[in-house]
Amino acid sequence: MSNENTISRRGLFMKMGILFNGLVAAALAVPVVRFLLSSITRGRANAYLSWVSVGSVTEFPEGETRLATFRNPYVTPTDGTTVDTACWVRRVAGEQFQVFAVNCAHLGCPVRWFPQSGLFMCPCHGGAYYRDGSRASGPPERGLFEYPYKVEGGLVTIQAGELPTPGSPTASLVGKKPPCAA
Amino acid sequence: MRRLITHLGAWFDRRLQLAAPIREAAEHPVPRNTASWWYVFGSAALVVFLLQLVTGILLALIYVPSASEAWSSLQALNHDVTLGWFIRALHGWGSNFMVAIVLIHMVQVFLFGAYKFPRELTWIVGVFLLLMTLGMAFTGQVLRFDQDAYWGLGIGASIASRVPILGGSIVKMMLGGPIIAGATLSRFFALHVFVIPGTLIGLVGLHLLMVLKLGINEWPMPGRLVKRASYANEYHELTKKDGAPFVPYAVWKDLFFAAFILLAVAACALYFGPFGPTGRPDPTIIQTVPKPDYFFLWLYALLSLLPPSMETPALLIGPVIAIGVLVLLPFLSGEGEKSWRRRPIAVLTVLLIAITLGTFTHLAGFTPWSPHMNAWSGDPVPEKVLHGTTALQRQGALVFQAKQCRNCHSIGESGGQRGPTLDSVAVRLTEDQLIRQVIQGGGNMPAYGNNLSPAETTALVAFLETLHPDGQTPAHNAAIGEAREKSASSQ
Questions:
Q1: Does residue B437 contact residue B419 with C-beta atoms inside 8 Å?
Q2: A128 forms bridges with which residues in the sheet?
Q3: Rg of chain B over CA atoms, in angstroms?
Q4: A123–B289: do the CB atoms touch at under 8 Å?
Q5: What's the complex ipTM?
Q6: How far is the C-alpha of A81 from the C-alpha of B70, rounded, in Å?
Q7: Same domain, B82 and B136
Q8: Could you say which of B163, B286, B450 has the minimum Cβ distance to residue A182?
Q9: What is the pLDDT of residues A27-59, one digit of tens each?
Q10: Chain A stretch 17-36, residues whose beta carbon is closer than 8 A to a beta carbon of chain B
Q11: Which of A58, B69, B277, B477 is least buried, going by the fewest C-beta atoms within 10 A?
Q12: Structural domain of residue B461, as residue ranges?
């Protein structure tokens, strides 16, 4: 006979069994969650970013903007062509450059450069930018994303590795451009 | 032979004991007036879902979920594998039909008041089934790993990155890494093939179980109100007095409609063929105009037309509100009138949403907000416009084309529609206003001051001044005109 205050042998075992399963589940949850979050944790402290070359300085005539491509520094075996990335390189003068992501600051579609009118135009939602990357018109709220660059040994290298979005380091490493500095 | 089948049947049922519950479910009485063509959409959605399961498994026999192989394996399906194109077409058209039928089913359930007591939970599960269906549609579009899929993922990532603080992490979680690459396709494959379909199967089972347990919603009669206290008895009375077994009384319409829908999917697949894939998912090919699949076109239009400052709040808060309203609906109006004849606001809401989505989808068909990237080099200046013009004005027409003005402005019905058409711009703006607009921009037009020499500006404006309909004179500044007349008369 059991009343409300006593607990049967079988009842105790069942509760212990549930508790045991709970402990095992909690222990297993740690590696599962770490596995799931690995794409975030791995990229802490900008670990995805590296300096990559987009070409030699001589490939970029002064005062002009050219499309350059580079291979994303972080590659996995099944990436295929997706790691080949394009960017717009503007050689302002001498060793002074601006390297823009092709991804529109609005929603990431690839912008195209029109040298005749000096504008970057986006085919998706109609964003447009001036030659210095600052916003000209349309839905974007800011100018084009810019990669940090350095000129080393005659090569233009940029710090790249993450898809440029409003929340990515590419967006924050270089601040917003002052409007219309062309 | 027949005896053998009976024997075998009995042998299995002795062990499975399923015959009785299945018979009971099949023959449960339904109100006679629900044996209507309006009640066939739920079963049709289920049948199309089964078609998607079967064709999906068939595609998985060939498809390779790897960013380096997926596109080629789709080409193989389209061109090498016997009838691979047809299975792809069935799956693609099946998804279009499924989204459409689920939406029609939802509208019917809403207008017939079927979400009211005691079927609130059936409705809520249905809302999640709709979300899962849309999730399947989006992830499926990603598996068709082409340029549209690649840039579509970029758009998804850009939207996700706008979440405050967590944006960057959500993007990496969504992409499975820092960029759209191999890990991204693998995780969308897992979502499309395991996670979402698994959830869908579970929720569909729950949805159907509740339809069986609670009974199909009776045909709504204007004035017959739902009350929590008495509804169960009333429904029971109705099925007793005026009920008929679901099989075969009502089921034949479901069967006919399901077969008709399958035939329609097959016909579309046969006639129109599979969707894509478009170009290789190579991000260095930037000469592309990405576009979402049909059911997300309205969103594409919305993202172009919202004022920039409202976009982030609308993207992040809008879905929460929309889902919240749908989930709360049965609690906000769980009782009362069911018939759409006496629920004018319900009918108007459906019409408003349908017209809005329809209009946005229609607009997204020709994207008036996007510059026409090739208009400046592809669309000629109409001959009529150049007739009898001066050398300066013709030079202006050249500037107009060369500076890509045509990409956003149309003349003679060709060119971009991002900015206003310029066929009668001379009537709207005076010479001074034209110069100011060209140099300073404004009203969503870039400033061209840095990009036009004074000579080019003069020529361009001289050309624009000629653009007015026959018989209408160009606008002029009346004040300047008067001043000139005065100075002329005083001389």
A1: no
A2: A121, A137
A3: 31
A4: yes
A5: 0.89
A6: 11
A7: yes
A8: B450
A9: 999 999 999 999 999 877 778 889 999 999 999
A10: none
A11: A58
A12: 375-490
